Amino acid sequence: MGNPRRLLFRIGALTGAALIVAGVALRLLSSRRVVTAEDLRVNRLTVAATIYPLYDIAREVAGQYAEVRLIVPPGASPHFFETTPRRLRELQNVKLVFAVGHGLDNWATEITGTAAVAQLFVVDRGIALRRMQDGTVDPHYWLHYGNARRIAENMANALSAADDVHASEYRAQAVAYGERLAEQEAHMRQRLAPVRGVPFLTFHDAWFYFAQDLGLSPAGTFESAAQGEPTPRHLAALQERIVTERIRVIFIEPQMSSSSLKSFAHDNGIGIAELDPLGGTEGPG
Ligand SMILES: [Zn+2]
């Protein structure tokens, strides 16, 4: 069996070696598991969203695992947005651009084409889109709770594909966000119940999905179709509708200039209120 002293020494040496091996293994493990703030900053996936509502949803789904940038600044309209070389430079490290599509933010294809680093991802999968009389699609589909939940799921899938290490986190965050939306939806339904069926006018044709979702009754828009200045004929028809349907209010939007609308509302004795289809500014969320 040999010298008991030598045996003890050998056990000690083995234990020491085992401890060193264990220490190295532990350090390796911990360096893989513990994500430092610096790791997150350097390695984090960076994506962008064209408009504030998509940016808002993307941030909920991305959480701490991906950085989300906003392209159209709050207060501006995506209908009249133009990309600049400076904006393109700001988007250089972006891997994915979330877009609404269907004519609302077509300029995003310019970003993904020119920057050549980002991939465009239209978030409409699984959403029942409204087809207009002229065959185009109404792009304002984010203004609907069920659709917003779908958008969150679609984003979770896209983020997971771009960063599969955090796939389960993205999916879990989309589910949690969907649950919070459902709570808010129930609350909104209750609050809007007294005005169900009450006709109202809006500035442009942005509120179909919202009205459909919550049982509201938009009765016309100040703008003519295709975002044009209202023609005299259009305004005459609107005037008639105000009388026959007893319309009492028109909603303006903070992104749209509305001086001509104000005199129209005044001349026809209807009130003006504000509805914001994009958000991102001070005031109601
Ligand atoms: Zn619009």
Radius of gyration using CA atoms only: 27 Å
Strand content: 5-15%
For the record, the count of structural domains works out to 2
* Biggest sheet: strand arrangement: 2-1-3-4
Number of helical runs? 10
Distance between the termini: 80 Å
- The CATH topology of the largest domain is given as Rossmann fold
User: What's the story with the biggest beta sheet?
Assistant: 4 strands, parallel
In helices, the fraction of residues equals 40-55%
- Number of E strands: 8
Global outline: globular
The CATH architecture category of the largest domain equals: 3-Layer(aba) Sandwich
The CATH class designation of the largest domain is Alpha Beta
Q: H/E order of the elements?
A: HHEHEHEHEHHEHEHEHE
| Mean pLDDT reading | 86
Structural class from helices and strands? alpha/beta
Unreliable sequence segments: 7-16, 23-33
The CATH H-level homologous superfamily of the largest domain: Nitrogenase molybdenum iron protein domain
Structure keywords:
285 residues; alpha/beta; Rossmann fold; four-stranded parallel beta sheet; 10 helices; globular; binds zinc ion
What do you see in this structure?
The chain has two domains: 38-190, Nitrogenase molybdenum iron protein domain (Rossmann fold); 196-274, Nitrogenase molybdenum iron protein domain (Rossmann fold). With 285 residues, the chain is an alpha/beta fold. Residues 7-16 and 23-33 have low confidence and may be disordered. The radius of gyration is 27 Å and the shape is globular. Helix 6 runs antiparallel to helix 7 (167-192). The strands form two sheets. It has a four-stranded parallel sheet with strand order 2-1-3-4, with helices on both faces. 48% of the residues lie in helices and 12% in strands. It has helices at 4-33, 37-43, 52-62, 85-90, 107-115, 145-162, 167-192, 208-214, 232-244, 259-267, and strands spanning 45-49, 66-70, 96-99, 119-122, 199-202, 217-221, 249-252, 271-274. The structure holds zinc ion (ZN).
